[in-house]
Amino acid sequence: MTRRRLGLFGGTFDPPHRGHVAALLAAAATERFDVIEVTVAGDPYQKRLSGAVLPAAARLEMARAAFADLPLVLVSDREIRREGPSYTIDTVRELLDEYDEVDLIIGADLVGQIDTWHEAHTLRALVTVGVVPRPGGEPEVPERWRSYVIDMEPVDLSSTYIRETPLNGDSLEEFLPEKVVPLYVGFRG
């Protein structure tokens, strides 16, 4: 019997950018996955507390524009449909009803925080972590997490940088997938 394996790439995606695209392409190239689910956080509780976040429906529309045509990728609204804060552990539990294995795909800039996530001790027992290299990020996850590094050149780009830098439509094309630019300009307008 073939085991079905899913890669979970969750985030706020405010906005989804070329670094996210590069990470998804690199994850697909590993040939570890049957499907890579991009899950847009409905209520990104850790980011919501630090500033304004576009509404979930807008972030989902941009994520679909950015990622829907990539190999193996399915863009999901599962965390948006769920009420309350978006916890990765809840999403992983749902996915394990459908898949035999779930790998959590995260940027190296987040690995130092993973032990602070909601029910991290349970999450650690359920997933393997695929680490996407990021400039300044440490690709080693905390002790007791199963992990591997996804082979790719680090992309020096973040959604925070894009939100905080005054950019027009032409300069945004350097950072955002082409289909995302008009959506982002309209939502942030």
Poorly predicted runs are none
Q: Approximately how much beta-strand content do the residues carry?
A: 15-25%
Which architecture name does CATH use?
Answer: 3-Layer(aba) Sandwich
What gyration radius follows from the Cα positions, in whole Å? 16 Å
CATH fold node name: Rossmann fold
Per DSSP, the total helix count is: 9
CATH class category? Alpha Beta
Number of strands: 6
Q: Summarize the biggest pleated sheet.
A: 6 strands, parallel
User: Overall 3D geometry?
Assistant: globular
Terminal-residue CA separation: 51 Å
CATH superfamily heading: HUPs
**Total domain modules:** 1
N to C succession of SSEs:
EHEHHEHHEHEEHHH
Task: Note down, in words, how this protein is organized.
The protein is an alpha/beta fold. The protein has a single domain (5-188), classed as HUPs (Rossmann fold, 3-Layer(aba) Sandwich), CATH 3.40.50. Helices cover 35% and strands 18% of the residues. It contains nine helices and six strands. It has helices at residues 18-29, 45-48, 56-67, 78-81, 88-95, 120-126, 159-164, 169-172, 180-188, and strands at residues 5-11, 35-40, 73-76, 101-107, 127-132, 146-149. It has a six-stranded parallel β-sheet with strand order 3-2-1-4-5-6, sandwiched between helices. Helix 6 (120-126) links the parallel strand 4 and strand 5 (127-132). Helix 3 packs antiparallel against helix 9 (180-188) and helix 5 (88-95) runs parallel beside helix 6 (120-126). The longest helix has 12 residues, at 18-29. The protein is globular and about 45 Å long. The N and C termini lie far apart (51 Å).
